[in-house]
Amino acid sequence: MREVESDPFSASRYCVSVTCSRDGRSHQISDVILADELMRGSSGMTALCGRTIVAAALSDPPGPPCPLCTAALELDRPRSRRT
User: Fold this and answer.
1) Cα–Cα distance between 23 and 75 in angstroms, integer?
2) Given 33, 35, 43, 45, which residue has the most CB atoms within 10 angstroms?
C-alpha cells in the first residue's frame, strides 16, 4: 500500500496496486474505492488514472506500472524544499 498526499476520488490517503486483466498494467486504486467496490461485488473499479479496471487473479504476477497512475502519485507527493 502506498501513501499519497491527496486522492482525487476519496478522502483516503492510501492506494493499492492492482493489476488489470485487460491491459496487464498495475494501476493504483484508492483503498476506499477498492473496499467499496469489493463490498458491492462490482467487477470494475476506477484507478487514479481514471481508467475502469478489472482486477487480474491475485496469483498473476504484477504487471508494469501504469504511467498515468505513476504520474498521479508523483503529483500528490509532497515536494521537498531545497535550501
Assistant:
1) 23
2) 45
Q: Which residues, at least 6 apart from 34, have a Cβ–Cβ distance to it below 8 Å?
A: 16, 18, 45
8 A C-beta contact, residue 45 and residue 65: no
Instruction: Look at the alpha carbons of 58, 63, 69, 71 in this order and tell me if their dihedral is positive or negative.
Output: positive
Above 90 in pLDDT, residue 39? Answer: yes
Q: Give the up-direction half-sphere exposure of residue 59: CA atoms within 13 A in the CB hemisphere.
A: 0
Residue 11, SS3 per DSSP: coil
Q: What is the pLDDT of residue 5?
A: 47
